[in-house]
Amino acid sequence: MAKRSTIGENPLDAVIQEHPLDTVVPDFSARTGRVQAPPEVDPEVQAHLAELEAGLKTLRAEMTGIKTAAAEVAPLKATMAGLSGEVAGLRREVDQLKAEAAAAKALLAEVTQFKTELAQLRASAGPGDLPFWMRGKKK
Predict the structure, then answer these.
(1) SS3 annotation, 12-31
(2) What does pTM read for this prediction?
(3) DSSP 56
(4) What are the C-alpha distances in Å from 70 to residues 64, 66, 76, 80?
(5) b/e per residue, 6-24, with b = 16+ CB within 10 A?
(6) Would you say 29 and 36 are in contact if contact means Cβ atoms under 8 Å apart?
(7) pLDDT tens digits, the chain, 139 residues: what are they?
(8) How many angstroms separate the CA atoms of 139 and 133, rounded?
(9) Residues 6+ apart with CB under 8 A from 58
(10) Residue 54 CA from chain centroid, whole number
(11) 127 Cβ contact list (under 8 Å, min separation 6)
(12) DSSP label of 138
């Protein structure tokens, strides 16, 4: 069996080689001797930036308005959902009432027909055709 060269050596004790990405780039602006001035910005860019900031402020104001409107709409949506159920119930009641009204119209037509038949019978009947209790008293 061949012996390894690392027997008896702890691999964690090995010297770690430095990697170039591990080094930190020094901050030159933090030096006390030389402070770099920020580069000058073109006035057109500053004007455009001011425009964008003003637009951002108006958009934020509009968003707060939209959020408050959405908060106001949420209870209305719940109310509308409840009302739609009530409307469905009322529609069922209306259909039921329509059916009852049609039945009442049919009964009214029968009553009218019976009244006309009764009037015809009364007109054609003589005094002898009536039963004794419907005839008048004799004088």
Answers:
(1) HHCCCCCCHHHCCCCCHHHC
(2) 0.38
(3) H
(4) 10, 6, 10, 15
(5) eeeeeeeeeeeeeeeeeee
(6) yes
(7) 566 666 777 777 766 667 777 677 666 665 555 556 667 878 899 999 999 999 999 999 999 999 999 999 988 888 998 898 899 999 999 999 999 999 999 999 999 999 999 998 888 877 677 777 777 766 6
(8) 15
(9) none
(10) 33
(11) 135
(12) P
Q: How far is CA 129 from the centre of its chain?
A: 77
11 three-state secondary structure: helix
Longest Cα pair distance anywhere in the chain, in angstroms?
A: 155
Structure tokens at 20: 């170039």
What's the CA angle centered on 93, arms 90 and 95, to 5 degrees?
110
- Residue 102: how many CB atoms within 10 A of its CB? 10
Under a CB-based contact definition with an 8 Å cutoff, are residues 120 and 128 in contact? no
- Minimal CA–CA distance to 63: which of 51, 78, 77, 55? 55
Q: Which residue has the tokens 């964008």?
A: 52
Q: Both tokens of residue 126?
A: 């003589």
